[in-house]
Specification:
Blueprint: E1 7-11, E2 14-20, E3 24-30, E4 35-41, E5 55-57, E6 63-67, E7 72-76, E8 82-86, E9 108-114, E10 117-122, E11 126-127, E12 131-135, E13 141-144, E14 155-156, E15 160-164, E16 167-172, E17 177-181, E18 187-192, E19 203-208, E20 214-218, E21 224-228, E22 234-235, E23 250-253, E24 259-263, E25 268-272, E26 278-284, H1 285-290
């Protein structure tokens, strides 16, 4: 499976688009004017390499970025000043015990914020503590959720998180399912994505639709966008033109119910209406960055 970096999030009329090469960046894009209004450079000590994985906003427009390479989540103001970090780093070496502890983020990939709590999904391999929670104000670890509701089950390198008033959705990538939790972390159930025994889905992003179905970005063998009920029944999607979405990797939704899809290796954002009708390209990253004011 191709490594997944980058992410998108929506705050009012702002689209946060995480991307990067040697250093992670987050571009804040005014959706009304289709222009970049701010850029956040993810920096580490000694100018070390950084990544920008998942991205999220809180109610005050602070920006949370999963720095996958450095095993932390960084919090920024909308103007790019780093104000907090979440997660304890450990030295990398043989063995796995040190990297599967409360408060330690082993290659964080996805972040989400709800009700004063930061949720983080981590791991390039299977971890018991693959989904953890932190207090936004203090950075204190609040605990982890139990994969499939069992004490020692491991998450399969989860790449996606989505939180709303109905609960928490985890794209459990290597297990090929969406795990469901309450807002306080209690396991509810899982949504299978495999069509048959030969299918190997790899969900990397998920969100809930108005009717309760889920929209999933699948990086598995069949790939693409999938609509599925909570019982795992596949639903029909609108007849988009062939090749509309190329390897979708992240999903976001605005207050009007429109859905944003990050695809083409994190270079493009396209939009769907609340009914999943196609609405066009919203962002072409290279075009926008080429017009960014110095």
């Amino acid at each position: 499976m191709r490594p997944v970096f980058g992410g998108i999030a929506i705050f009012r009329n702002l689209l946060g688009l995480a991307h990067g090469e040697a250093h992670g960046q987050v571009s804040l894009i005014d959706l009304d004017e289709r222009r970049v209004v701010s850029r956040i450079l993810v920096q580490a000590e000694g100018d070390a390499f950084t990544d920008a994985g998942g991205v999220a906003f809180d109610a005050s427009c602070s920006v949370y970025v999963a720095d996958t390479r450095n095993d932390v989540v960084r919090r920024y103001t909308a103007f790019g000043r780093e104000v907090a970090r979440y997660g304890q780093r450990v030295e990398r070496g043989p063995g796995t015990v040190e990297r599967d502890r409360l408060g330690v983020l082993d290659r964080p990939r996805a972040v989400a914020v709800h009700g004063g709590v930061l949720w983080v999904a981590s791991g390039e391999r299977k971890l018991v503590r693959g989904v953890q929670r932190f207090d936004l104000a203090s950075g204190t670890p609040l605990g982890f959720v139990r994969s499939f509701g069992e004490v020692d089950r491991r998450f399969g390198a989860p790449r996606g998180l989505a939180i709303d008033a109905s609960g928490v959705l985890v794209a459990d990538t290597l297990h090929g399912v969406i795990q469901r939790f309450t807002l306080d972390g209690r396991y509810v159930g899982s949504v299978p994505l495999a069509v048959d025994a030969d299918d190997a889905p790899r969900p990397v992003a998920v969100l809930r639709l108005d009717d309760g179905d889920l929209l999933v970005a699948d990086a598995g063998d069949r790939g693409g966008l999938v609509r599925v009920s909570l019982a795992g029944v596949r639903r029909a999607l609108p007849p988009w033109p062939p090749g509309t979405f190329v390897e979708p990797t992240a999903l976001a939704r605005d207050a009007a119910g429109r859905i944003y899809v990050l695809d083409r290796h994190g270079e493009r954002v396209q939009r769907l209406g609340p009914d999943l009708s196609y609405d066009g390209v919203v962002v072409d990253l290279f075009e926008l960055l080429g017009r960014f004011p110095e």
